[in-house]
Amino acid sequence: MRWLKRWKEANWQRGGKPIWAAKEWKDIATRVERLPVKVRHVDAHIPKSRANEEHRNNEQVDRAAKIEVSKIDLDWEHKGELFLARWAHDASGHQGRDATYKWARDRGVDLTIDSISQVIHDCETCAAIKQAKRVKPLWYSGRWSKYKYGEAWQVDYITLPQTRQGKRYVLTMVEATTGWLETYPVPHATARNTILGLEKQVLWRHGTPERIESDNRTHFKNSLINTWAREHGIEWVYHIPYHAPAAGKVERHNALLKTQLKALGGGSFKNWEQHLAKAT
């Protein structure tokens, strides 16, 4: 294979021009440095009447090689794009098709809509979230029908693994007429944190409510909460903890929120605070 050695010494050029299929010949040169290889020249384009067994075998191998190389190239290209699409979908927070496409494009990654659609269709996290959201809400029933948007809320706390910032609880606040959910992560379930969460997530965003419902645990039922509610003209109503008929809305949202946080965490509550906005 003296000619292969000469091509390599000439930087894969002949007469000042790159040789045909230089990339493939470079690969062959690399391989033959480590393996014993024998090469024999077989004339191509021989009429069938003059072709011997060697020519026919060469033609058969040539056809097979073209098919296999084409198949392999397309397969790897497709798998590579799906890998990038899956990365973009995960890293962007499991957004929809168009949002994932824009997120990737803004970072210099060109993806096809088809690859993104396939990844989203196969995404177990998105499937879990969709399944959780199929739970039919029970708004507009009974005592809530007389209230306008933002006038009545149910509140509660859920407990999650402690974050590096020391946060372990989430104050959940559900608007009674629509089921709109607000959340506020805190290190401790206290009356002061309850008031801070309500002021930041409810009063500043939705206006002062007429009615708030909660259970009668100490972070809700205490003098600090009573004074704050009275000063703001809010009727605070207490019910028995875990009493489903009374706390139905917030309890359903608590279960849904945990399901979505676990799905976004890949089956655990890892980094739940980072996923809170997405899950809300």
UniProtKB/TrEMBL annotation:
Q: Quote one Gene Ontology molecular function term.
A: hydrolase activity
**GO process annotations (BP):** DNA integration
Identify the residues that the record assigns to the Integrase catalytic domain, covering every copy.
133-280
Q: What is the lineage of its organism?
A: Eukaryota, Metazoa, Chordata, Craniata, Vertebrata
Alphabetically list the UniProt keywords: Endonuclease, Hydrolase, Nuclease, Nucleotidyltransferase, RNA-directed DNA polymerase, Transferase
Say which domain of life the source belongs to. Eukaryota
Name of the protein in its database record: Integrase catalytic domain-containing protein
Task: Give the matching InterPro entries.
Answer: Integrase_cat-core, RNaseH-like_sf, RNaseH_sf
